Input
Amino acid sequence: MHESAFTLGRDSVWKQGRSVAGVWTEEVGTITGELELRTLCTDDGSLIVRVRYAGALDWYSVRGGQAQLYDPRDHQTVHELLVNVLHYPGG
Output
């Protein structure tokens, strides 16, 4: 699904300091370093996860980063969960 199909106002961006293991993307494989995380959700609960190098233009699809939420209001909770999973406290 094209990113423009997702409801505006439901995406959020998080910048991590460093990632030890990196994030596996569909387009370029694993990326590491200072990254930004974006989650997007439609009104019907379709969720996609994107990642990019901090400040870069290109967003990449996270491998396995699609889901159907039972309730789109769960979007923020899922985003926070991903942030917590990807956070490397030593960064």
